[in-house]
DNA sequence: GCCGCTTCTGGGAGCGCTCCCGACATCATC
DNA sequence: GATGATGTCGGGAGCGCTCCCAGAAGCGGC
């Protein structure tokens, strides 16, 4: 039995290679009856074009890469990445692209990315996450000429990026806490090299200042986006007696909650706690977390679409897309409505 | 400037395409001086062979796939996968293979695997994890003829697999608890469709029975490898007053710990708790967890090596490799040595 | 100095597909 | 009925590499 190739499919359908190719690639200019015939043969034989041959002859591989700039442990313990990958993976399927995840944490693996992945033309483009300001990787990618989009922030406006509206998110938190009459508002931030963290911080400070209640620098502690880090940060904060703590992620907020509870603080009466993300830990914590909702999964799918746009139409200028954020109020900032009342 | 191809490199080095190819692929039969000359050109120009062309002309893509049979959330929240992926990724780098991660959770994405990944000859082989007994995927893969290895258990001996020695691990736990004089030994298992869970359970039961202290079926609760699941399972268990609980993973053990502590039980005095894996949550929990250490990262690298063996030498019969497990005793089963004594 | 051997090198023939262009048929138009 | 526009189809020419084999070069032995 001969090998199953385009040629063979064409032969079986009684058409030429070219016509079979047109049908399989959904191009028009083929009479419906002939199209049908080819499609039937494809169905019957289960023909699938050879990826490498396609990639060599056409000019693209239909493989998109996802490069995450974090250690494996960090990636595989963060619900944020779960949601993001979910969104990216789904969008790839929708657009008939294969997603390939590249992990590179050690410096050595780092070196490999340009050589082994980019120069070999293995991927058509890259979604890159968790970069920090002035990340050399970004520069490297720009140099290499490969299309890519960043999930997060970039200073260079000629690079496409997707992100949540961090500014608005932080401002909403400030507004909410002020409206609750909190006066000793603390923050547990992410590392300042993270652009998301510094943007949230700046926006938060500004919102407080505008409202005439500027932030006390003593009430700001930098943590590392982990639960344990936030737990430790909160212990530091306790002596300063804050009446509200804004943690820059839900995971960190969970650590904040734990530290406060162990110290005997009532939430939200003594201290209001607010997170960021609205990912699984938020609604399940006790008490449920007031948090800034961002659409992480959508962020992923938008990133893929933006990347495909860049690949297919390099002439379109780069652009940045910010997805809306909104505040989700739960019991960690506002006492439940039944407090002091009877269940109806 | 002409495109950088093998042809061009050969031209610059003053040799033929074939010779350049030999040098780049590390084959011998090339005079050292000529080899040097080619290598210099490669270095200078930064030439990297085109992946698709290689893949088409040779018969392999140098891409290995990792297929994880779980939802994205599960994968991205489990330290086990972090370690496993780490091992696999490292081994791929060592062997100059590109790792591609395929996520497919929905039924629709499932369908894609055979067609889009296997038939296209995109990957040379697959590492498959988290299969369950009689998983149709395994059958599909066997049918398709693509080389693959399973991380975990398989009934079919003609399939290569890598796993920890679960039997020994479970037996060690039984032995340890018995030696501590525990009599009401409970287990919080994983789902019984998981082969690892059922093997651990069987081995554990057998070990207890052999020691003349058969397991009380009332003291066995099935959970789902999550912390919350184990928390709930333990609450069920509390009324039966166990004096030891063996959880089938460290994450679950953490849930067990939490439930016991909330119920006011002292650990290990009232209840000894033992986990499985010895991954990050184990040593950091309070109290630190006695657990069965398995070398997850090594499991990953061995899987890759076994896969490469199958790809390169299909004639070698399939084999199963079991990596040793050992007991790591910490404070969750044995009170710290300083209890009742003075620090020296 | 010639033969036969080994060691090294070069060129041809694909791998399976896409893309381009020319051939052909069909139909409307004058 | 000749002409051109329009719509379909087929074949050739690669994409950049690997593999195979033939041929060149170098060497010792007679």
List keywords for this structure.
DNA-binding, Rossmann fold, 344 residues, 45% helix, 14 helices, six-stranded parallel beta sheet, homodimer, 434 Repressor (Amino-terminal Domain), six-stranded mixed beta sheet, disordered C terminus, 3 domains, alpha/beta
CATH architecture of the largest domain in chain A: 3-Layer(aba) Sandwich
For the secondary structure, the number of strands of chain A is 12
Q: Whole-number average pLDDT of chain A?
A: 90
**Greatest interface and its participating residue counts:** A-B, 44 and 44 residues
Largest sheet: spatial strand order of chain A: 2-1-3-4-5-11
Span from first to last CA of chain A? 76 Å
Domain count of chain A: the total is: 3
Strand content range of chain A: 15-25%
The biggest beta sheet of chain A, please?
6 strands, parallel
Q: Give the structural class of chain A.
A: alpha/beta
Counted by DSSP, the helix tally of chain A is 14
**Which regions of chain A contain 5 or more consecutive residues with pLDDT less than 50?**
338-344
* SSE arrangement of chain A, N to C: HHHHEHHEHEHEEHEHEHEHEHEHEE
The radius of gyration computed from the alpha-carbon positions of chain A, rounded to a whole number of angstroms, is: 25 Å
Structure description:
The structure is a homodimer of 344-residue chains. Chain A contains 14 helices and 12 strands. With 344 residues, chain A is of the alpha/beta class. The first copy, chain A, folds into 3 domains: 6-49, 434 Repressor (Amino-terminal Domain) (Orthogonal Bundle), CATH 1.10.260; 63-164 and 297-323, 3-Layer(aba) Sandwich (Rossmann fold); 166-294, Rossmann fold (3-Layer(aba) Sandwich), CATH 3.40.50.2300. In chain A, the strands form 2 sheets. A 6-stranded parallel β-sheet of chain A has the order 2-1-3-4-5-11, covered by helices on one side. The first copy, chain A, is elongated. The model of chain A is unreliable at 338-344 (pLDDT under 50). The A-B interface holds A 46, 48-53, 55-56, 61, 63, 72-73, 75-79, 81-83, 85-86, 89, 93, 98-103, 108-109, 112, 115-117, 119-122, 228, 280, 284 and B 46, 48-53, 55-56, 61, 63, 72-73, 75-79, 81-83, 85-86, 89, 93, 98-103, 108-109, 112, 115-117, 119-122, 228, 280, 284. Chain A binds a DNA duplex (30 and 30 nucleotides) through helix 2 and helix 4.
């Amino acid at each position: 039995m001969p090998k199953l190739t385009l040629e063979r499919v064409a032969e079986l359908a009684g058409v030429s290679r070219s016509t079979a190719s047109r049908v399989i690639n959904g191009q028009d200019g083929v009479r419906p009856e002939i199209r049908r015939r080819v499609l039937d043969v494809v169905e019957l034989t289960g023909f699938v074009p050879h990826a490498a041959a396609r990639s060599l002859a056409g000019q693209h591989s239909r493989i998109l890469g996802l490069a995450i700039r974090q250690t494996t442990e960090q990636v595989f313990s963060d619900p944020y990445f779960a949601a993001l990958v979910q969104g990216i993976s789904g969008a790839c399927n929708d657009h008939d692209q294969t997603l390939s995840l590249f992990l590179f944490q050690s410096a050595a693996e780092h070196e490999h990315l340009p050589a082994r992945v980019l120069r070999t033309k293995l991927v058509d483009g890259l979604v890159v996450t968790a970069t920090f300001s002035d990340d050399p990787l970004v520069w490297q990618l720009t140099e290499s000429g490969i299309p890519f989009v960043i999930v997060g922030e970039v200073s260079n406006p000629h690079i496409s990026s997707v992100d949540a509206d961090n500014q608005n998110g932080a401002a909403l938190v400030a507004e909410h806490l002020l409206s609750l009459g909190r006066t000793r508002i603390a923050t547990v931030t992410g590392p300042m090299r993270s652009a998301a963290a510094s943007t949230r911080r700046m926006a938060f400070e500004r919102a407080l200042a505008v409202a005439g209640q500027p932030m006390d620098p003593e009430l700001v502690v930098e943590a590392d986006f982990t639960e344990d880090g936030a737990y430790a940060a909160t212990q530091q904060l306790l002596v300063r007696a804050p009446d509200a703590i804004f943690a820059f992620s839900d995971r960190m907020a969970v650590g904040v909650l734990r530290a406060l509870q162990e110290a005997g603080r009532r939430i939200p009466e003594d201290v209001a706690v607010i997170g960021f993300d609205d990912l699984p830990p938020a609604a399940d914590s006790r008490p449920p977390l007031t948090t800034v909702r961002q659409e992480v999964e959508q962020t992923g799918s938008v990133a893929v679409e933006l990347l495909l746009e860049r690949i297919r139409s390099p002439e379109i200028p780069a652009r940045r897309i910010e997805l809306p954020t909104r505040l989700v109020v739960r019991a960690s900032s506002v006492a439940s409505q039944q407090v002091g009342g009877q269940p109806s």
